[in-house]
Amino acid sequence: MARKHRSIDLATLTVHAGTESREPDTPVVSPIYQSVNFIQEIGSEEGLRYPRYGNSPNAEVVQARMAALEGAESAVLLGSGMGATACALLTLLRPGDHLLASAWIYGGATALLQREFVALGIDVSLVDPLDTRVWRRKMRKETRAIFLETPVNPTCRVLDLRPVSYITKQVGIALVVDSTFASPVNFRPLEHGADVVVHSATKYLNGHHDMLGGVVCGTTSYIEEVRQKMIMWGQAPDPFAAWLLERGLKTLDVRVRRHNENALQVAEWCAGRREIKRVHYPGLRDHPDHDIAVATLDGFGGMMAIELAGGTRATERFIRKLKLIRHAPSLGGVDSLVSEPRYTSHAHLTAEARAHMGIPDGFLRLSIGIESAQDLIGDIEQALR
Q1: Which fold has domain 10-250?
Q2: pLDDT band at 6 (very low <50, low <70, confident <90, very high)
Q3: DSSP letter for each residue of 336-362
Q4: Between 20 and 181, whose confidence is greater?
Q5: What distances in angstroms separate CA 205 from CA 65, 142, 175, 316, 319, one per listed residue?
Q6: 256-289 pLDDT, tens per residue?
Q7: Which residue of 82, 138, 150, 241 has the smallest Cβ count within 10 Å?
Q8: In which band, very low, low, confident or very high, does the pLDDT at 161 lie, cut at 50, 70 and 90?
């Protein structure tokens, strides 16, 4: 699992991309430009700067850095991951169009597609992403894009983009990939045939559970259209959120490497416990997508899931007994978290629908942080007793 060769390593880009100035007296850390208004040139609309337009100094640094990390021409920062998903897709779709999407996506994204998009006159088909033939079979002349997520929240399945990107390139439509679980450290979808990359910046990109944001990466012309959607719907983040994101990105490489190491150790330990019926982690050899993960990812990630043998009653006891790992709905930060998808991202689904997606009752998602792996294992062990 090696990164593709690039002139500047990704670890360096996380710290320096977008901040090239070396002039004397320039601050090493970007200042927070906590201002809504900037002095405008007289007699011209050129250089108009306004935070809702996504061109505040703090946002511009982050956007340049994310484009460099994903290998994209351009990027735009938005107020949330859901805002990023909505603007990214609605830039490609109009009433009467058809969207083909993986059925294995974040629950909030599913609700967006099935409720809001349908209300806007956009037809949506959710398909089993493992059936490579279904993508072509469900294609229509009105299909304008394919949307999928990999690794998948919360089951940690890993999808192979190659057969999907082959189809999208052949028919001339866009492949949009939510890469939140991976971060650019572990996976860069554009290198595997995607056209657009979406992130919830709230997660690994920020990494500290203290800001809300989303990012879309793609071609310059496409990102400008996304920006116009963002402007009209007021989806731009405030300067402080952008500043927090830039700070988080500086440690992205070292954080994600630690997440990778810790999660693999915890997953391997959990796999040997009789109290745990099943462990979902692509780094384990018995994971159904292990070979795809080895071939496409630069790291197996910090996300994993377990199914307790005792079912739903066991999960509540287990969560209550945890001392280090805290019960909270987000992921991707330095602190380890546990959550039950049946009460969070997939609460709108029936138990049967969740089970069909691979999320049976008794399923717990673990976001493994950067603490000592042995301490995390000790916490899980005492909670299982």
Answers
A1: Aspartate Aminotransferase; domain 2 (3.40.640)
A2: low
A3: -EEE-GGGTTTTTS-HHHHHHTT--TT
A4: 181
A5: 11, 35, 22, 30, 26
A6: 999 999 999 999 999 999 999 999 999 999 999 9
A7: 138
A8: very high
Residue type for position 116: E
Give pLDDT, residue 284: 98
pLDDT of the residue at 351 = 74
Residues 143 and 125: their CA atoms lie apart, in Å, by: 10
61 — phi, psi (to 5°)?
-60, -50
Residues serving a catalytic function are 52, 106, 178, 203
Q: Are 240 and 34 in contact (CB under 8 A)?
A: yes
The single-letter code of the amino acid at 210 is D
pLDDT recorded at residue 82: 97
| Sequential DSSP letters for 25-60 | T--SSPPP---S--PPPTT--TT---GGGT-SHHHH
Domain boundaries, the chain: 10-250, 252-384
Q: Which residue bears the tokens 């033939």?
A: 133
Q: Which residues contact 206 (CB under 8 A, 6 or more apart)?
A: 213, 244, 245, 248, 249, 332, 333
Q: Where does 252-384 sit in CATH, by number?
A: 3.90.1150.10
Amino acid 340 reads E
Q: Is the pLDDT of residue 347 over 80?
A: no
CA distance 319 to 383: 7
The tokens of 21 are what? 């100035």
